[in-house]
């Protein structure tokens, strides 16, 4: 029986890892092909940053809405249903994305893709966390994220080998193939047990927001992830514009930057997971990562005349810092009972992704006041400060028993 359980858990980890691999590919492909695709559909150079922020924010808005939808579905009807429904939606959206010819349609399709992408990571992390022993679950979530973020590497090479439209087709096609592979996966035992307890309220947003202490706990979970997407979505994605402001001799490649950043995130996720198991603390690991984010990002933003080699190194270094992504989602999942766990684990990463909207709005406002470099530094320091404060307000969740409900 133990051998069979181990085999089933291994299958879940593999399916969740591959799902996150495709999720990351589809999530960041726009950042990689932004300039090339915009040139192809006629966006002038002076509107690249503004139109890029519009499309990216549409995708992030979809992630916000999708996080709510899929989180509630996962707690009410099961984690497996989300893993099937979300991948079907974002795969079809990415295939359609290969046919767009204007920025408005581009943004609308990325919004739909965002809704689909919102369900993948949270449901996968919840399913793996609930299926593993409490002292070992950090290894499972580490593998899911560490393997998953390598999808960014494939996204870069596909964008180099093929045109931007084909890159979207490849992402959608991989999702359809993975959808077929998921047939036969099993549901979480803790969720199955909650179904039998019919009196328990499951997947209720009212339950999440009606209790002050529970709501504060949720907000603190969101805040610890704030710097992650600013680094990826602004500092790396806008590398051509930031490089110009730094006096770079050559145009910095956002595509290569994203690839090296995600390579760093993959390594960082493995290191963060191992360090958390060694220290028996997820909070200490997240704090170390916040310091790494500050050091690497400030180094990057003060690198006058930066060259491509140094940019790639710093992109990898920044990736190591934001490589606590899986640890952040795991902390969020561990802070809440079974009847709210998937709702939190699904909405938290997507609300953090969606928080890029106000972050870029603040950043854009500061750019007009102080220029792109000072604006980036101020925004980064503010977001990191908020994250560190929120971290101090959360309880340590390592080795916490997850078999309980929120009342």
TrEMBL record:
Membrane topology designation: Multi-pass membrane protein
Domain of life assignment: Bacteria
Keywords: Membrane, Transmembrane, Transmembrane helix
Transmembrane segments: 12-34, 54-73, 80-99, 111-128, 140-158, 164-181, 218-239, 259-278, 285-301, 313-331, 369-391
Stored InterPro entries: MFS, MFS_dom, MFS_trans_sf
GO molecular function annotation: carboxylic acid transmembrane transporter activity
Domain Major facilitator superfamily (MFS) profile: 12-396
Main location class: membrane
A GO term from the CC aspect: plasma membrane
Keyword Transmembrane: yes
Compartments, record wording: Membrane
PANTHER family per UniProt: CARBOXYLIC ACID TRANSPORTER PROTEIN HOMOLOG
Name of the protein in question: MFS transporter
Organism: Sphingobacterium paucimobilis HER1398
Highest classification ranks of the organism: Bacteria, Pseudomonadati, Bacteroidota, Sphingobacteriia, Sphingobacteriales
